Amino acid sequence: MADDELEAIRRQRMAELQAKHGDSSNNQQQGEEAKQREKDMRNSILAQVLDQSARARLSNLAMVKPEKASAVENYLIQMARFGSLGGKISESGLIEILEKVSQQTEKKTTVKFDRRRVMDSDDDEDDY
């Protein structure tokens, strides 16, 4: 009898693991589909907002600096949702937006010199 009970427990546990593994791959597939839908929606909004040359410039920027391109895309999508865009943005308009974003995210670099004072000859001046 113990063997039958043990076999039933094993089958139940195996079914639970298979169901759990199947659910996780199903959730992963749903997550990928959601990301694809979001990407398609972003592209359709950008196609409505930007003209061809501006889209080309933005795609070139995305290859070089993806974080800056995504920030500009988010900015454009937000402007489109609020209705503050008067029409399609040309390449020159996109350049102005890029300059604004660059000024906001500009990093200041500073250089600090830390001199060693181990063998400083000025401190130990001996007059002979």
Task: Give the terminus-to-terminus CA distance.
Answer: 104 Å
Number of strands: 0
**Largest sheet: number of strands, sense, barrel closure:** none
Give the topology string: H per helix, E per strand.
HHHH
Kindly provide the radius of gyration, computed on alpha-carbon positions and rounded to a whole number of angstroms: 30 Å
Quaternary organisation of the protein chains: single chain
Average pLDDT, all residues:
82
Shape by Cα distribution: flat
GO cellular component, one term: cytosol
InterPro entries: PDCD5-like (IPR002836), PDCD5-like_sf (IPR036883)
Function: May function in the process of apoptosis.
Biased composition (Basic and acidic residues): 32-42
Provide structural commentary:
It comes from Gasterosteus aculeatus aculeatus (three-spined stickleback). Keywords: Acetylation, Apoptosis, Phosphoprotein. Helices cover 72% and strands 0% of the residues. The relative contact order is 0.08. Helix 1 (2-49) crosses helix 3 (66-82), helix 2 packs antiparallel against helix 3 and helix 2 (52-64) packs parallel to helix 4 (91-104). The protein is mainly α and 128 residues long. The longest helix is centred in the first third of the chain and has 48 residues, at 2-49. The chain has helices spanning 2-49, 52-64, 66-82, 91-104. The mean pLDDT is 82. It is flat, with a radius of gyration of 30 Å. The chain has 4 helices and no strands.
Give the key terms.
single chain; about 130 residues; mainly alpha; 4 helices; about 70% helix; flat; apoptosis
